[in-house]
Amino acid sequence: MVIHPAALEKRIKRHVRSQQQRFYVIVPPGFEATACRELAAYDIPAVQEDLGGVAFTGSWEACWKTHHRARIPARILVRLAQFTCTRFEQLERHLEAFPWELWFQPCQQVAFQVDARQSVLYHEGAIQERAERCVKRRLHPWQAISSETDSPDGVQTIYLRNVHNQMTVSLDCSGELLYKRGYDKHVADAPLRDNLAAAILQEANFSEFDMLIDPMAGSGTFGLEALLALTERGAGHLRHFAFEYFPAFRPAAYRYFLNTDVPSRHERPTLRTIVLGDIHDRPITIIHHNLQQLAALGVDTTQVRVEKADFFSTGAEFISGKTLVVMNPPYGTRLKSAQSTRAFFGKIGQQLRHNWRGCSFAILAPGTEAERALALPVARKIVFSNGGISTALLMGKIS
C-alpha cells in the first residue's frame, strides 16, 4: 500500500474532520445524570451509556467544547470501530483494515489500554500484542514516506474493550486525566479529585448560595473548583489535550474557538464568599499555595478566605446569608476502625445540628453507619465509589 500525502489529507478531511463522531465521556460513577445536565447546558445532548460513562454524537467543535468547558468528565474517547470478536483472526482482520493513518501523525508514539471481560478472547496481553503488530503494519508505508523523523510530543492511546465478545475500539482525546486543571496544584492526604468535587458542587446548586464553607478543606478542592466555575475560564483553559496531535486537528480553527467560546449566564450566581478552613498547618499552607498559583494565572481569588480553625469549635461566626457547608471528612484508612468512624461522624452531626443551624449541607459519608451517626435531615442522596470505598453524598438543610 502506498500513501500519497495529498490524497491522505483529502481522506482525513472527508472521513474524519467533516464527519460527526461518536464520543464516550468517562465520568465519576453515580454522577452520570449530573454530567448529562452539564453537557446539555453547553448544547451537547448526551445520554448515559453505562455505569461511569455517557455518550454523545457531535462535531469536533463539540469535543473541543466538552474538554474546554465541562468540569465533570475524567476522560473523553472517540469511538473508532465496533465488531464481534471471538477469534484472534477476526481481531487482526478488523484492525489491519482500519485506516489508522487518518488518526495518527507520522512516527507518533502509540500506547494501548485493553479491557477484556466475559469474552472468548480474554487474555489482555495477547490482544495488545496483536493490536500493536496490526497498527504498526498499517502505518509502516506512511512512516516510510514521511519527512518527519522525531515523534510528536505525547503518546496517543488506543482503548480496546472486549465485553461479551463485542470489541469496541476507541482513541483517547484527552491525554492526562481531565481532573488535572493545568495549574501547579498541591494536594493534602487522600485528596478529592477536582472533577468529582465539581459534580458534588453542581448537585448541591452551590452557585445559588451567598457563602460556601468547607471547614475540613484539606487542599481546598471544593473551594478552588467553586472559584474557577464562577469565572469565565473553562475547566481546560490552562492545559492541552491529546486531540491537538490528531492529523485532523486545525490549530487556527481551535484558536478561533477558544477566543469566541464565552459561556452565556442566564442567571448571575449569588455566591460571594468562599471560606476554606482546617485545623492543621500543612493543609493551610497547601491552600495558600494553590490560591497563589491561580492568582498568578489571572484568577481573582479575593473572595476566598482561608482560616486555621477547629470545625468542632466554630459555627455561627462564619455564617453569613444563605450558606452551603461542604465536607469531605476523613474516613477509610485515615480512621483506625469502624467504631472510630461512627464516633467521628456522630460528632460532626452533633456539631452541625447545634452550631450550624439554617445552613444547607453536602457531606460525604462512607456507608450507612456513618450516615446514621450523622443524624442529619437528608433530602437527597447519591451513592458512588470514592477511592474504592462506597460513599454517599448527603444533601439537605439543618433546621
**Form type:** globular
* Distance between the ends: 73 Å
The largest pleated sheet is described as: 7 strands, mixed
**CATH class assignment of the largest domain:** Alpha Beta
Strand content: 15-25%
Q: What do we call the CATH homologous superfamily of the largest domain?
A: Vaccinia Virus protein VP39
Rg to the nearest angstrom? Answer: 24 Å
Q: Any low-confidence stretches, pLDDT <50, length ≥5?
A: none
Number of structural domains: 2
Mean of residue pLDDT?
Answer: 91
Class of secondary structure makeup: alpha/beta
Helix content: 25-40%
Strand order of the largest sheet: 2-3-1-4-7-6-5
Reading the helices and strands in chain order gives HEHEEHEHEHEEHEHHEHEEHEHEE
Q: Give me the CATH fold name of the largest domain.
A: Rossmann fold
Q: So how many helices?
A: 11
Beta strands, count: 14
CATH architecture of the largest domain: 3-Layer(aba) Sandwich
Please describe what this structure looks like.
The radius of gyration is 24 Å and the shape is globular. The strands form two sheets. The chain has a seven-stranded mixed sheet with strand order 2-3-1-4-7-6-5. Strands 10-9-8-11-12-14-13 form a seven-stranded mixed sheet. It folds into two domains: 168 residues, 2-Layer Sandwich (VC0802-like); 171 residues, 3-Layer(aba) Sandwich (Rossmann fold), CATH 3.40.50. The relative contact order is 0.12. The longest helix has 22 residues. It is of the alpha/beta class and 399 residues long. The protein contains eleven helices and 14 strands. Helix 6 packs across helix 7 and helix 10 packs parallel to helix 11. GO terms for molecular function: nucleic acid binding; rRNA (guanine-N2-)-methyltransferase activity; rRNA (guanine-N7-)-methyltransferase activity.
